[in-house]
Amino acid sequence: MSTFTIFLALIVVVAFLLVVVIMVQNPKGGGLSSSFGGGGTQQLGGVKKTTDFLDKSTWTLATLLLVLILLSNVAINRGGENLDSKALDPNATTSQPLPAVPVQTTNDTATPADSTGN
């Protein structure tokens, strides 16, 4: 298994966890943090601590995702190719030939409406 494949699997897992953490939050006081509040008398861990945990989890997962994406760029196997641009090389040849331009001959008897030459 290549290093890039490992980074790719980690990126998918972190992205999934980030989506789950974001979906659990509700900016209007609902979501997971309000379900712990109940009627306001019984709190399991407290609403404020749950919101802080979800907020810190979001920032941590987002930072981890960004770092993994940047590190995965280093792990891409480029096959040892020369990364210089061929547009700057004056000796480089193009792999595709230029399209042929049809040659138009002048025919004094032909008119624009009659292109067959009759």
UniProtKB/TrEMBL annotation:
The keyword Transmembrane applies. Residues 91-118 have a biased composition (Polar residues). The chain crosses the membrane at residues 6-24, 58-76. Keywords: Cell membrane, Membrane, Protein transport, Translocation, Transmembrane, Transmembrane helix, Transport. Residues 82-118 are annotated as: Disordered. It is found in: Cell membrane. Pfam families: SecG (PF03840). It is a multi-pass membrane protein. The keyword Transmembrane applies. Belongs to the SecG family. NCBIfam families: secG (TIGR00810). Involved in protein export. Participates in an early event of protein translocation. This is Protein-export membrane protein SecG. It comes from Flaviramulus multivorans.
